[in-house]
Design brief:
By secondary structure, this protein is of the alpha+beta class. Helices cover 32% and strands 8% of the residues. It is built from six helices and eight strands.
């Protein structure tokens, strides 16, 4: 019995050894729930931080994508206190330069400005002006026939701006302009070289004039209106278009044209009025009793004054007088032959 009891006790001791837990293990086991809870809390905070950062990055990415879809951000308004204003002025000047005319070759009658520095827009006539450094009134040798007509050389630009008024002021000679800038003033002639703008004018010497030569006081009026190419110039005897001449067709009609061939009809005439032209020049200031040779010379002087090649011009404008000279004959000579009154002009 005693042995059995010992054996039982031994077995009980062994089995009890499995149930007995050391104190340190028990303490550790007691701390494990708190540590696990702390670790779980720390893990939650770390995950929350990561999720928050990812959310921020995602939002930033969406903003970048949205702004890129909108395109580049437009610049703000130009500052007129820094270089932006200078750049803007440069663009404006470049635009104006593009609109202006090139030297010599382009017509500046409308734009009235020149691309090239130092050049001015000078008028030739009412249809043409071009850019030059200077201009001398009259015929320019480089102009070829039939464009070799006179230049007025009126400057259409003044410091890059259109001249406000081409009439004369009271202290200027108005012989050429024939008009006055001041309201109520008229251009009165002193002599063949000088005229002045005044409100009134009494013939004779003027007390305020240091020159004792008397004043004529006739009014230097603006040039009379002439005719356009589609009008009858029988009354005016002059043409608005430079280089054109008023030629007679018959006793009822005359027209401005560049040339006229006597005895031929013009294709520009209506078919029902297509008949030969006379080609006498209306209002040509020549003596009616002049000889054919004198009339031809007068035609060259009057109609071809502004042309470099007068003889070439006369072929277009003086056919009526050349024909009259060619048909003129003198009495038979001693040997019975006939000669022309004058040699043919061309």
């Amino acid at each position: 019995m005693a042995l059995a009891n010992e054996d039982e006790q031994h077995l009980l001791a062994e089995s009890g050894s499995d149930l007995d837990i050391p104190n340190n293990i028990v303490a550790a086991s007691a701390r494990e729930p708190a540590a696990a809870a702390a670790a779980a809390a720390a893990g939650f905070r770390w995950k929350s931080t990561v999720v928050g950062l990812l959310t921020v990055f995602a939002a930033a990415a969406l903003v970048v994508q949205w702004t890129s879809d909108l395109g580049p951000i437009p610049p703000g308004p130009p500052s007129f206190l820094d270089l932006a204003a200078t750049n803007l002025v440069g663009v404006t000047n470049d635009t104006n330069a593009t609109m202006c005319a090139a030297a010599h070759t382009e017509n500046c009658i409308e734009v009235k400005c020149c691309k090239d520095a130092g050049f001015e827009c000078f008028e030739k006539n009412e249809w043409w002006a071009s850019c030059h450094e200077h201009c001398t009134p009259g015929i320019h040798p480089q102009d070829k026939y039939p464009h070799n007509t006179s230049w007025t050389c009126k400057k259409l630009t003044e410091g890059g701006k259109l001249k406000a008024d081409d009439c004369s002021e009271s202290h200027e000679n108005c012989m050429e302009s024939r008009c006055c800038r001041d309201e109520g003033y008229k251009c009165f002639r002193k002599n063949e070289f000088w005229a002045n703008c005044n409100k009134t004018c009494a013939p004779g010497p003027h007390a305020w004039d240091a020159d004792p030569i008397r004043w004529d006081c006739s009014e230097v009026a603006e040039e009379p209106l002439c005719s356009d190419t589609d009008e009858n110039c029988m009354e005016t005897g002059c043409c608005n278009r430079e280089g054109y001449t008023c030629f007679k067709k018959n006793d009822f009609w005359a027209k401005c044209a560049f040339q006229c061939i006597p005895g031929e009809s013009s294709l520009h005439d209506p078919e029902e009025h297509r008949e030969p032209w006379n080609c006498d020049i209306i209002e040509m200031p020549c003596n009616e009793s002049a000889t054919p040779a004198e009339l031809l010379a007068c035609c060259k002087s009057f109609a071809c004054e502004d042309f470099v090649d007068v003889e070439l011009c006369a072929l277009d404008k003086c056919g009526f007088y050349a024909a009259a000279l060619s048909n003129a004959t003198v009495a038979p000579t001693a040997n019975g032959s006939k000669t022309t009154a004058q040699q043919r002009a061309y």
